[in-house]
Amino acid sequence: MALQLIATAVSAFSSIQAGRAAAGSAAQQAEQMEIDREMQAVQAQQQSIARVEQYEADMAMNDAIFAMAGRDVSDRSIKAFQRAEAKTVQKDITRGFAQSEMEQGRTLMQAAAERARGKAAMKAGLLQAVGTTAEGISDYLKTKA
Questions:
Q1: Is the separation of the CB atoms in 1 and 143 below 8 Å?
Q2: What is the model's pTM?
Q3: Looking at beta carbons, which pairs linking 18-22 to residues 24 or more positions away fall under 8 Å?
Q4: pLDDT of 102-144, one tens digit each?
């Protein structure tokens, strides 16, 4: 009979430990997602810098080609071309940041869902432990009677 109570206690303890382990794992996953979110923001910033650098290099090359062709860079058609290229770069950067914001938001929601999953696993472990304990006590009392 004492063995029955010990087995019940061990089973309940195991349920609690399993819940704690699942909650800990979920917390670690959520933390990694937060780090990934920060990395996404840094990556978007780096991509925008790279796009501006590429634009500047392209514009310098275009200016050199125009100069070699004998065209004055203050010419209206060249200025219109430069404005159009600047707008394209601005749109590219804006689009990149918007996409990054959406990805970061999605990652943030996934992290919140992972934390909720961990809390649910912890509660499930505790409830299972309570159920196991109640069942074990009931079985013990039936056997004792």
A1: yes
A2: 0.72
A3: 18/121, 18/125, 19/121, 19/122, 19/123, 19/124, 19/125, 19/126, 19/128, 19/129, 20/122, 20/125, 22/117, 22/118, 22/121, 22/122, 22/125
A4: 999 999 999 999 999 999 999 999 999 999 999 988 888 888 7
Name the CA radius of gyration of the chain, rounded.
Answer: 31
Q: Are 100 and 43 in contact (CB under 8 A)?
A: yes
> For 27-67, what is each residue's pLDDT tens digit?
999 999 999 999 999 999 999 999 999 999 999 999 999 88
Decide if 96 contacts 49 (C-beta within 8 A). Answer: no
Q: At what angle do helices 76-144 and 2-68 cross, to 10 degrees?
A: 180
- Confidence band, pLDDT 50/70/90 cuts, at residue 2: confident
Q: Residue 85's closest CA among 61, 67, 103, 109?
A: 61
**Angle (nearest 5°) at CA 71 between 80 and 62:** 65
